[in-house]
């Protein structure tokens, strides 16, 4: 059995998918990009601000499922340029405690939706 998780505080899907799906105690989020949910505009002013918007979007999706970043057990980060890794990692690290941070992979890809620089998805457990 699955429960669809949605919130108006994160960007609406731009395709045939949902913001997240909860099955049992496990939440699977769709990848988030830096769309400001209030304006619908991309936040591309800097890689730091872009990553912060992505993380804030994930925070809202987690909150809609009554979870926080403490519940995250796995993160997947897709970036268009590995040269941005350090800045992305710094912002990402602000949302986790190093002692209990989730497992993660970071992969450089050729392109991302809307040609953004970073997309992140997570798996969380209650």
From TrEMBL:
The entry sums up its family as follows: Belongs to the RutC family.
Q: Name one GO molecular function term.
A: deaminase activity
Q: Name one GO cellular component term.
A: cytosol
Q: What is this protein called?
A: RidA family protein
Do you know which InterPro entries this protein is assigned to? Answer: RidA, RutC-like_sf, YjgF/YER057c/UK114
Q: Where exactly are the transmembrane stretches of this chain?
A: none
- Originating organism: Polaribacter haliotis
Highest taxon of source? Bacteria
Give the matching SUPFAM superfamilies: YjgF-like
Cite the source lineage. Bacteria, Pseudomonadati, Bacteroidota, Flavobacteriia, Flavobacteriales
């Amino acid at each position: 059995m699955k429960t669809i998780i949605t919130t108006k505080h994160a960007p609406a899907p731009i395709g045939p998918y949902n913001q997240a799906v909860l099955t049992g105690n496990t939440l699977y989020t769709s990848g988030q990009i830096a769309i400001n949910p209030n304006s619908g505009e991309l936040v591309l002013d800097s890689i730091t601000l872009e990553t912060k918007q992505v993380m804030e979007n994930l925070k809202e999706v987690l909150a809609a499922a009554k979870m926080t970043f403490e519940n995250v057990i796995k993160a997947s980060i897709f970036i268009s340029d590995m040269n941005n890794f350090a800045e992305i990692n710094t912002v990402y690290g602000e949302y986790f405690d190093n002692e209990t941070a989730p497992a993660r992979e970071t992969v450089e890809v050729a392109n991302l939706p809307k040609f953004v620089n970073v997309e992140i998805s997570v798996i969380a457990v209650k």
